[in-house]
Amino acid sequence: MRLGLRLACVAVCLGLSSLPASARNLPEFASLIEKQAAVVVNISATRIQTPVKAPFLRPQRDGVPEWLRRMLPSMPEEPDEPDDDRAVGSGFVIGSEGYILTNAHVVEDASEILVRFNDKREYLARLVGTDKRTDIALLKVDASSLPQARLGNPARLRVGDWVLAIGSPFGFDSTVTAGIVSAKGRSLPDDGLVPFIQTDVAINPGNSGGPLFNLQGEVVGINSQIYSRTGGFMGLSFAIPIDVAMDVQAQLRQRGHVMRGRIGVLVQEVTRDMAESFGLPQATGALVSQVEAGGPAAGAGLKPGDVITQFDGKTVMSSNDLPRIVGATRPGVSSVLKYWRAGKAAQTSVKVAEFPEEKSARAVQVLEHPIRGANRLGMVVQDLSREQKRELATEQGAAIREVAGVAARAELRQGDVVTAVIQHGTGSEVRSAEHFNKLINGLPRSAAVTLLVRRGDTQSFVGMKVPGN
User: Fold this and answer.
1) Which of 314, 309, 295 is nearest to 341 (CA)?
2) 416 is catalytic
């Protein structure tokens, strides 16, 4: 009986495997590839390098590492002359004028850019412009009758939708890989302006700049980055939405560079504890941690502790949304900004300026062991030293000497200075270490509290809960 069941199972499995893709409810990629592969190009960018003092660190030639070449008698040693470093990537044709989109890092510092189509035609390309903040580059070739990519709408993509990539991983032209959309609107470190499409499509070096297709054969993104601990594919790939790329290339064509808006604030995410302490109905919006003196936001009356909930009619759900929305606003435009302050909603008008270099916060290390003499949040604090008062230009605050427990898990560290305590939407400035401990020890159990903390020349809000015991 068991043997019969096994044979029946094998027969069913074999029967399913012989069914066409449509019968198994799987996508049929072959037709899409036949129609769209021609729009994808291989890009080879040559960079002139200076002589390398350590020959064994040189790139491979003809597939043979330099250290091995020197050991083989049939391969004589070559003199230390400048090398041509060749970067390989992918791209695709947009429009009928010979414009090609790719990644900026593929063609960075290139002295020559060669574009090869899948019908073996080759053209030298002219670099129209690059935008490093979005990793977009626009090329131009003098050619006619080129196939053109059809562009889709990334907003219509759903998590779980099938997508397909065509590119040249490791130089293997017209390589096709497929997968699904894993997430949308991802923010990566130093890439706050791009709402990346995350997929599990196999992407490797050489795929950079190639198109990401939906099942309708439309380009919905440009494959740009992978997350990897080994340098190879690990199931996490990120693509730039095509609408972002098209806005960038339009500005590169028009003026050779990209203009973006800014309002002069540093923002951070709103946690549940912060929302409760601010009196916010939900943990949404972008919390203003610092306002640039003399900047547009300062002129509009914004202050640290305000939570921006809407900009120019667009809802700000998280801190990642604000840089994208403001960045897409042209400098000089006045926009309505809605925010939350002291338990109430308010709004103001702010005139957008041009975007500067972004600042980034440093990672911190924490301690977890208990400390004698710590307050209920796990901090031992002291009054500001003379040097700290001079550096911070203030006479008030409490400097952290040791940290553990709740405060350590909130990533506070020695040397941080607490300047204010916020609870139920009301802020209290910290006058001294004794005053700070009195404020904290007077809070009820499990109360949500937010601290305003200075670290160097930056400040941020840190939310946490008072321990329940």
Assistant:
1) 309
2) no
> Is 223's pLDDT higher than 70?
yes
129 in the same domain as 36: yes
Name the active-site residue from 44, 90, 131, 135: 135
Domain span at residue 211 reads 154-255
> Taking 60 as the threshold, does the pLDDT of residue 362 lie above it?
no
The active-site residue out of 90, 105, 435, 460 is 105
Catalytic residue from among 90, 168, 182, 208: 208
Residue 146 lies in a domain: no
What does the H/E/C string look like for 180-208? Answer: EEEEEEEEECCEEEEEEEEECCCCCCCCC
Average pLDDT over residues 329-334: 88
Residues 191, 197: Cα–Cα separation, whole Å = 13
Task: Establish whether 208 is a catalytic residue.
Answer: yes
The predicted pLDDT at position 80 comes to: 45
Inside any domain, residue 250? yes
Highest mean pLDDT among 48-57, 85-94, 207-216: 207-216
Q: What is the structure's pLDDT at 16?
A: 45
- The reply to whether 105 belongs to the active site is yes
